[in-house]
Specification:
Shape: globular
Structural class: alpha+beta
CATH class: Alpha Beta
CATH architecture: 3-Layer(aba) Sandwich
Distance between the termini: 34 Å
Number of helices: 4
Helix content: 25-40%
Mean pLDDT: 94
Strand content: 35-45%
Number of strands: 7
Low-confidence stretches: none
Number of domains: 1
């Protein structure tokens, strides 16, 4: 008998926001930013893609991807986060896999992060999933915060 998948992924819904806001707050940015960030995608007014990863029916993470303007099928992973208690347990891998599957027609997926110590785990995560470190722009985000860019060719 096959074991059920530990995580399921699906498009985000507005009812997910109360579950996702604390995850955003704990990992990336203030959780109260989520409603405005998600609104264009939830209303169908943009091509933005928001996916949710669930465990036992409860949202435990999200990914936010946007098409890059003026490019040939290039998308940018703007945010990916999972409940900190699930780090290293496959939720992020399920989520980024779902992003790649949903972007089957995309040519390139770009991910920007920083060189800061708190992003060490994220950089290792991307590299382990086949993303190549292609650029570092010194002092991009601030005097002591470089922009570190990873890419993966999808098609």
């Amino acid at each position: 008998m096959a074991m059920p998948d530990l995580y399921q992924t699906r498009p985000a819904r507005d009812t997910d926001i109360p579950f996702l806001a604390p995850i955003a707050e704990a990992t990336l940015f203030p959780g109260d930013m989520l409603p405005d960030m998600m609104a264009p995608a939830l209303s169908g007014d943009s091509e933005d893609l928001w996916l949710v990863v669930e465990q036992d029916g409860a949202p435990v993470g999200f990914a936010f991807v946007q098409p890059e303007a003026l490019t040939d099928r290039t998308w940018n992973l703007r945010a990916i986060a999972t409940d900190p208690g699930l780090h290293g347990k496959g939720a992020g891998t399920a989520l980024i896999g779902a992003v790649e599957t949903r972007l089957a027609e995309a040519r390139l997926l770009v991910i920007d992060t920083t060189q800061t110590e708190d992003q060490d785990r994220a950089r290792r995560f991307y590299a382990a999933r086949g993303y190549d470190h292609v650029a570092t722009i010194p002092a991009f985000f601030g005097p002591d915060e470089d922009k570190v860019t990873f890419v993966k060719t999808l098609t």
